[in-house]
Amino acid sequence: MDTPSFEPPSYSLSHICQNKNVPFVKPIDKMSRYAPAIAQTMNDTLLIVGASGGLGAELLEAALADENVDKIHATSTRPVSSTHERVRWHQLDYREPATVSRLGEALAESAARLDGLIVATGILAAEDLQPEKNIAQLARHAAEESYDINAVGPLLVFQSCAKLLRAAPTPKALFLSAQVGSVEDNQLGGWYSYRMAKAALNMGIKCAAIEAGRWRNPATVVAVHPGTTRTALSRPFIQRRKAPVRSAADSAGRIYTLLAGLTATETGHFFTADGAMLPW
Ligand SMILES: NC(=O)c1ccc[n+]([C@@H]2O[C@H](COP(=O)([O-])OP(=O)(O)OC[C@H]3O[C@@H](n4cnc5c(N)ncnc54)[C@H](OP(=O)(O)O)[C@@H]3O)[C@@H](O)[C@H]2O)c1
Question: Is residue 37 within 6 Å of ligand 1 at its C-beta?
Fold first, then answer.
């Protein structure tokens, strides 16, 4: 049974994703936004999972503008032919586990190490999955789909490229999560599948950060909430939003700058795109 009193008056991404603790940061121009380098050498290799998405595509642009990044491996669920000599595309769909292992094999064949991993995949809604307004709308198949794609898939990618990350001098892994995955920050409820899946992702990231902190070259592993951003994922939920929504280029620029500036002491934390810390 629906319980209307439980629903917030305006149940939109704006209510849920906006981080009120973060001061407004003046937009910066594209060159300075993308100027920071992810690592120290001139021949770094980076993997961007979900480089076909709204944020992923702009993160790919940011990496292309980073002259220290020599080679970028990018994934999409669909086949993409590369239009740039520094980019190699791979087809990867978490719903087809063989594509995850194939990605690991392809990387091992062509790269000696992986300096950076960015996971920019995720789903909020799909054909049989809509963000739930109340417990009555929770459905097993939808929750499982969200869990598979939002939580398990990203960690299996980390697993498949851990060996290459270990070979880098200062490896970094950044996973796009969502503030709604924070248990402590949850004031509104709802969106069961997405919230539960992102909370599970967050726990996976925390475990990975602890484990990778014990590597000979410890990795910096973080979760990042991008902030409400105009993409295919958010579009249905921001139509009536009054507060400004960032463009994907703006959010990606901030995320790339954050990644570039990360140090080992910041591993195992959950950040906004502007570098403010969020509670897990
Ligand atoms: N936009 C926002 O306001 C917002 C707010 C909070 C958090 N986030 C998070 O930010 C991340 C990026 O979101 P976005 O806004 O850029 O969304 P998007 O434009 O919809 O992009 C989603 C990406 O995920 C990939 N993907 C979807 N299903 C997949 C699967 N089964 N296997 C592998 N890849 C799959 C898509 O690949 P294809 O293109 O091949 O389908 C696409 O590259 C997500 O984790 C999202 O939860 C976004």
Answer: no
Render pLDDT for 175-196 as a digit per residue (tens, 0 to 9). Answer: 999 999 999 999 999 999 999 9
DSSP string of 140-170? HHHHHHHHIIIIIHHHHHHHHHHHHHHTSSS
227/190 Cα distance (integer angstroms) = 19
Give the range of the structural domain holding residue 48, as residue numbers without chain letter.
13-123+159-177+203-278
Tens digits of per-residue pLDDT, 26-78? 233 333 444 566 655 568 999 999 999 999 999 999 999 999 999 999 999 99
**Domain membership flag for residue 170:** yes
235 lines ligand 1 (CB under 6 A): no
Here the CATH number for the domain that contains residue 98 is 3.40.50.720
Ligand 1 atom with minimal separation from the 77 CA: 40
Q: How far apart are CA 113 and CA 115, in angstroms?
A: 6
Q: Is residue 165 part of a domain?
A: yes
Residue 261 and residue 60: Cα distance in Å, rounded?
Answer: 17
Task: Please give the number of the atom of ligand 1 that sits closest to the Cα of 93.
Answer: 32
130 falls within a domain: no
Domain count along the chain: 1
Mutate to test the pocket of ligand 1, among 12, 102, 123 (most ligand atoms within 8 A of CB): 123
Indicate if ligand 1 lies below 6 Å from the C-beta of 78: yes
CB 257 near ligand 1, within 6 Å: no
Taking the CA of residue 121 as reference, the ligand 1 atom at the shortest distance is: 24
Residues in the chain: 280
85 lies in some domain: yes
